[in-house]
Amino acid sequence: MDTDALTPGLLQELRATRPYPALSLTMPTHRRAPDNAQDAVRLRNLVAEAGNRLDADSRVTHEARAAVKAQLDRAVAEVDQRRALESLVVFAGTDEYQIWQLPRTAPERVVLSDSYLTRNLVAAKAGAQLFRVLSVSAEHAALWSGTNEVLRAEERHGFPLSPPHENFDPERQARSGGAPSIYSNEDTRSFFRTVDGKLRAVLAADPRPLFLVGLPQALSLLEDVGESAKSAACKVPKGTTAETTAPELADELKAALDDWHAQTDTAARRRLDTARGAKSFTSGLDEVWTAAREGRVAFVAVEEHFQRTVRVTDNHLQPVDPADVAPGDGGIREDIVDELIETVLDNGGEVAFVADDSLADHGRLAAVLRF
């Protein structure tokens, strides 16, 4: 699965306590050759390590050991190297497995516990800047899920939708904007009310910024008959059809998305500036990590590709070179930034990822404190 599948409900389910051992396997991956040639070898080595850990753990019964190994083997057989992003996360229990391919790097590790290791998923979701797109006309309504990486059609939640009544040459109308009266008849208004109701249900279950794409009269009608359009992050007045592809739609959205990302960065920097004036600001990995553990971080901004391997000594973080880390060194935290992000979110804080080097003067991350 990909980051856009990680709903709050699914995350809660993944974090639930499970019968021991719940196995989590994480590793960095590569999108392209020749670097991706090493991924299969690394995965085999981690699976072998997981097997050895299960064999050596006296808490694991023979039946549970065999069941988890079987689920892990099934998961590995389904891993599609062609869809690799920056990391792979595999969960395996006695009766289930899940595969996640994430656009954010994760350290190489195997963890046996009574719940799955979710911090890499949480950090990837926080950094993915998830959004939704509704492309709408009098003859169709399609819902799309977007991340930094891809735009995918969502064929669920009742989408895509078509009206029950057929209009004359609808595809020509959608392309050219002809026959504007179609947007004033009651059949079309009823169809748009249905679209609005289904869209509101989706956004209530998993809130995300919404982008609307359609002819001006379609966008106007959607706002007139319902509520979902009024909270849209952006409206792109461009006609679409039921045959519009993801790449075509992404091209139409590019300018709006670039502007949205820029606004997000500006808003984060403005919030940090306000906090400095109010003396509720801190920065640097060690200081922000300490404040996050104490539940004092209301908002943290992190450079998009900032990662750090550290050793925790006397409740302080000491950066270390990953090349100098000995295998099995329990004092090392390879994913301390992702751990920090999960801690902030668990305590009700907010996380924003900003452009690389934009926080160079503040140790690559900065926070607004509650107290």
Order of helices and strands: HEHHEEEHEEEHHEHEHEHEEEEHEE
Total helical segments: 10
In terms of quaternary structure, what is this? single chain
- Count the strands? 16
What integer value in Å does the Rg equal? 24 Å
Question: Summarize this, please?
Answer:
The protein has 371 residues and is an alpha+beta fold. It has 10 helices and 16 strands. A 5-stranded mixed sheet has the order 7-6-5-8-9.
Explain how this protein is built:
The structure is a single chain. The chain has 371 residues and is an alpha+beta fold. Helices cover 39% and strands 22% of the residues. It has a 5-stranded mixed sheet with strand order 7-6-5-8-9. The protein has a 4-stranded antiparallel sheet with strand order 3-2-1-4, with helices on both faces. It has a 4-stranded mixed sheet with strand order 10-16-11-15, sandwiched between helices. The mean pLDDT is 90.
